[in-house]
Design brief:
Number of strands of chain B: 11
Number of helices of chain B: 0
Largest interface: A-B, 23 and 22 residues
Low-confidence stretches of chain B: none
Distance between the termini of chain A: 37 Å
Oligomer: heterodimer
Mean pLDDT of chain A: 93
Shape of chain B: globular
Largest sheet of chain A: 7 strands, mixed
Structural class of chain A: mainly beta
Number of strands of chain A: 11
Chain lengths: 114, 111
């Protein structure tokens, strides 16, 4: 149990285009999901907290108009990187809480912007 | 903001050796979690700790929640090559809240 999936697993896009990443909890419902960004050889950096039925909460320094988050249902949250640029290239990972205390992570999405 | 100091940053050990890594925090957490991340993958939850002083095992892994609520350690016994990866500690202030991650410990196991 407690499986989180992400789609796509990797994506290459051209500068200026938008990319949507999906995060799904497969066998449980999650009112809260989290989106992280990870650069090579670094720890996970929380970008935003996605709340079902309400607006996402963004961490300081994360542009909410650039990283659009939609938590459409109790099993799906999406992150859209708008007008992507090469500096947005990174590994994006989502997590969801199967219980109040445990968070399970998706397999990640590798984004490369050319 | 909160900070988690995780050490060591990296470890190179021989297969069969035991490993210990730890995290300390400047503030109190009510939950400590330990994750392992393989290259190109998301972190996988290894052990969750909920009470100060708690000692929990998962196979060859043992983790403890410090009495002060500001630290935790993870031990791996009799390491094997598949233990290679990055281990992260994470603290959670309250249930359902955001996680604060340590910087990770890169473990290399030589056969």
């Amino acid at each position: 149990g407690a499986v989180v999936s992400q789609h796509p697993s990797w994506v290459i896009c051209k500068s200026g285009t938008s990319v949507k990443i999906e995060c799904r909890s497969l066998d449980f419902q999650a009112t809260t999901m989290f989106w992280y960004r990870q650069f090579p050889k670094q720890s996970l950096m929380l970008m935003a907290t996605s709340n079902e039925g309400s607006k996402a909460t963004y961490e300081q320094g994360v542009e909410k108009d650039k990283f659009l988050i939609n938590h459409a249902s109790l099993t799906l949250s999406t992150l859209t990187v708008t007008s992507a640029h090469p500096e947005d290239s990174s590994f994006y990972i989502c997590s969801a809480g199967a219980s109040p205390y445990e968070q399970y992570f998706g397999p990640g999405t590798r984004l490369t912007v050319t | 903001g909160q900070q988690l100091n995780q050490s060591p940053q990296s470890m190179f050990i021989q297969e069969g050796e035991d490993v210990s890594m730890n995290c300390t925090s400047s503030s109190i957490f009510n939950t400590w979690l330990w994750y392992k991340q393989d290259p190109g993958e998301g972190p996988v939850l290894l052990i969750a700790l909920y009470k100060a002083g708690e000692l929990t095992s998962n196979g060859r892994l043992t983790a403890q929640f410090g009495i002060t609520r500001k630290d935790s350690f993870l031990n791996i016994s009799a390491s094997i090559p598949s233990d290679v990866g990055i281990y992260f500690c994470a603290g959670q202030e309250t249930s359902g809240s955001r996680l604060t991650f340590g910087e990770g410990t890169q473990l290399t196991v030589n056969p």
